[in-house]
Design goal:
This protein has helices at residues 3-16, 30-40, 46-54, 57-60, 65-72, 78-91, 105-117, 121-141, 143-159, 165-179. The chain is an all-alpha fold. 36% of the residues are buried.
Length: 184
């Protein structure tokens, strides 16, 4: 891994602290690393790859956007640091249970889909990679939740059409395989 991306990865790992993947004994960082690897198949843009590594940091840790920006400015040119923070913000859920306790999950996820429909192509591309990485594990490890999650991913992919088409098709395939793992 490129030294700059390694530093971003280490920052994300430290931010996630002791968080573990929900369905395995893996440290949380394995997921953002895989998302970054998927994105690296189609781009070498440091802002996109950094945002892929950091995509859950604002949502799932105590790190603020300002702290993230200050860190990135030590590694990236100002324009790349700003783009990275922007992509991470775009990928950070706004319509959470904490912020909208009166809404049910369906309404919150529908609002997120509407919001992500307007996201940049780069943020949508990272979200495609996120779906590709999450779908098989959720389908395998949590079949009760998988139907809902897969339905939400289908809705996202219907609305998010501006990102990299290759990864979008891979995400659609991952959703279809998760829904029907035996190929029936």
């Amino acid at each position: 891994m490129d030294p700059t991306l390694q530093q971003v990865r280490d920052f994300a790992d430290a931010a996630h602290g002791e968080q573990m993947r929900k369905y395995s004994d893996d440290r949380y960082i394995v997921h953002p690393e895989r998302v970054m690897q998927l994105c690296s198949k189609i781009t070498n843009d440091a802002a996109v790859l950094s945002a892929a590594l950091l995509h859950d940091v604002l949502e799932d840790t105590e790190v603020t956007a300002q702290e993230l920006d200050e860190f990135l400015l030590t590694l990236l040119p100002p324009a790349d640091a700003a783009r990275t923070v922007q992509y991470v913000k775009e990928l950070t859920d706004i319509y959470t249970k904490k912020n909208y306790p009166q809404w049910n999950r369906r309404k919150r996820r529908s609002k997120e889909a509407e919001r992500l429909e307007k996201a940049s192509p780069e943020a949508q591309t990272i979200k495609y990679a996120d779906i590709i990485d999450n779908c098989p594990e959720i389908a395998r490890e949590d079949p009760d939740f998988a139907d809902r999650y897969i339905s939400e991913c289908r809705e996202l992919l219907r609305k998010m059409t501006k990102g990299n088409e290759q990864l979008r098709l891979e995400a659609m395939d991952a959703v279809n395989r998760a829904k029907n793992p035996q190929g029936l």
